[in-house]
Design brief:
By secondary structure, the protein is mainly α. The protein has four domains: 82 residues, 3-Layer(aba) Sandwich (Rossmann fold), CATH 3.40.50; 37 residues, no CATH class; 59 residues, 3-Layer(aba) Sandwich (Rossmann fold), CATH 3.40.50.300; 34 residues, no CATH class. It is 45% helix and 3% strand. Strands 1-2 form a two-stranded parallel sheet. Helix 1 runs parallel beside helix 3 and helix 8 packs across helix 9. The chain is flat.
Length: 232
């Protein structure tokens, strides 16, 4: 069974078998769910079955941060929660400790246009802050070139490499950026991930290619042989 099967079978068991349901309701007397906006319908039903009559349920979530609808997440679970548990206490965590007010104002100007779920009014004690600049790149190569040029500009102004940070959404986006930095001679450290050319699967492919180009490459051959039986 995969993860979805475990959810479906688990809910089916708790729904139909009162002994099992009572056992787990007695054992799990307090339920806490984080990232509630990323739960789907079956996870919500599972949570309700576990909470039972005690209704000792705490959920933390923000519908505006819901990004997993493509895998079944339903931000409306926040609305359903308040409907199914009318006595629930809502605590809005609106103070932000990470961003400046300039960034929060920009985010709020976009988020406030949503009308299908509660909107938080984010604020911070970090007043002001640099203005947000937008660069619309033609493609990922243009984006990487822009980052390199901005980095060179900052270094020219007296900044250190350690003062500069580049954020991107997924690790899959790092390759083009890493290559641009390497070609420009800009040192970098990848935080929370592995450099593209240091990833195991990339090294495996490169070993195959090196071996095809040079059958006497013993280092590549040893790596390839560890992947399984092959003929060369």
């Amino acid at each position: 069974m995969d993860f979805d099967d475990l959810l479906l079978r688990g809910v089916e068991l708790l729904d139909k078998d009162s002994d099992t349901r009572n056992k787990w309701q007695e054992r799990l007397t307090y339920i806490f769910v984080d990232e509630w906006q990323d739960t789907n319908k079956i996870q919500y039903k599972l949570t309700k079955l576990l909470a039972g009559k005690r209704k000792n349920l705490t959920a933390v979530g923000d519908a505006s941060q819901s990004v997993y609808s493509w895998r079944g997440a339903d931000y409306r679970n926040i609305n359903y929660l308040m409907k199914d548990y009318p006595d629930i206490k809502v605590v809005n965590l609106e103070q932000n400790y990470r961003s400046t007010q300039t960034i929060l104002d920009a985010a709020n100007s976009v988020i406030k246009k949503n009308t299908s779920h509660p909107i938080l009014s984010l604020w911070t004690n970090k007043k002001g802050g640099s203005k947000i600049k937008l660069y619309r790149a033609r493609n990922e190569l243009d984006e990487a070139d822009f980052i390199v040029s901005q980095t060179d500009s900052l270094i020219t102004k007296g900044y250190e490499f350690g003062d500069i940070c580049v954020l991107y959404r997924t690790n899959a986006q790092s390759r083009v950026l890493e290559e641009a930095l390497l070609h420009a001679g800009i040192p970098y450290v990848l935080v929370g991930g592995v450099r593209f050319y240091e990833r195991r699967e990339v090294k495996d492919v490169l070993s195959f290619l090196r071996l095809l180009a040079n059958p006497k490459d013993s280092v590549s051959k040893n790596r390839v042989e560890k992947l399984g039986v092959r003929r060369f």
